[in-house]
Specification:
The complex is a heterodimer.
Chain A lengths: L4 E3 L2 E4 L5 E6 L6 E7 L6 E7 L2 E5 L6 E5 L5 E5 L8 E11 L2 E7 L3 E5 L1
Parallel strand pairs in A: 2-11
Antiparallel strand pairs in A: 1-3, 3-8, 4-5, 4-9, 5-6, 7-8, 9-10, 9-11
Chain B lengths: L2 E3 L4 E5 L4 E3 L2 E3 L5 E8 L6 E7 L7 E2 L2 E6 L4 E6 L8 E9 L4 E3 L3 E6 L1
Parallel strand pairs in B: 2-12
Antiparallel strand pairs in B: 1-4, 3-9, 5-6, 5-10, 7-8, 8-9, 10-11, 10-12
Classes of the chains: A mainly beta, B mainly beta.
């Protein structure tokens, strides 16, 4: 079965650089979520999209932006990178039905290291 | 406020024995879902089991079962017949209606041979 695809798997950037993380949800999943997991921490919600519109926003820095495209893939853009942005970034997708989410599935994550 | 609490930072279990990982939650919404995920050292988040707030029976998936006690707001994960490959971080998470997951702090499980 198709899974959530994230690219790249690993990314090394220098401070003040920009990074773009990509997420390809499971086909027919209409909701995409982004999470950030710092070292030794639990995942924290950043932002989500439902049918290409932003549906919820968490503790996402102003330096970060995201969007969902017509083919439902999503990109997380991160600018002016800081050392503290080093983390594992997860994308998840689900299919919304009658107010409940089904098939909530995570990608393998992108490990971002800022040096 | 919505919150998930995992009070066991680390747990040890002997291979082939059962282990229970604790999870309590807090929400005032009557409609919610509870998830357990396994995160090995490689980092991926592996779905284990799901329990909906309206589900009458406790969820089971192979060696995993969820002890859902709604009145006590607990959703403990039971792993039967532990295997060495079960050593990992385990996260309990809650989803309220359409949306994000709220994660607990995680429990690191170590299975001893």
């Amino acid at each position: 079965a198709a899974g959530v695809i994230q690219s790249p798997r690993h990314l090394i950037k220098e401070k003040r650089e920009t990074a773009t993380l990509k997420c390809y949800p499971i086909p027919r999943h209409d909701t995409v979520y982004w999470y950030q997991q710092g070292p030794g921490q639990d995942p924290q919600f950043l932002i989500s999209f439902y049918e290409k519109m932003q549906s919820d926003k968490g503790s996402i820095p102003d330096r970060f932006s995201a969007q969902q495209f017509s083919d439902y893939h999503s990109e997380l853009n991160m600018s002016s990178l800081e050392l503290g942005d080093s983390a594992l970034y997860f994308c998840a997708s689900s299919r919304d039905s009658s107010g409940a989410n089904y098939g909530y599935t995570f990608g393998s994550g992108t490990r971002l290291t800022v040096v | 406020a919505q919150k998930i609490t995992q009070t066991q930072p680390g747990m040890f279990v002997q291979e082939k024995e059962a282990v229970t990982l604790d999870c309590t939650y807090d929400t005032s919404d009557p409609s919610y879902g509870l998830f357990w995920y396994k995160q090995p050292s490689s980092g991926e988040m592996i779905f284990l089991i799901y329990q909906g707030s309206y589900d009458q029976q406790n969820a089971t998936e192979g060696r995993y079962s969820l002890n859902f006690q709604k009145a006590r707001k607990s959703a403990n994960l039971v792993i039967s017949a532990s295997q060495l490959g079960d050593s990992a971080m385990y996260f309990c998470a809650m989803q309220v209606r359409r949306g994000k997951l709220i994660f607990g702090q995680g429990t690191e499980l170590s299975v001893k041979p």
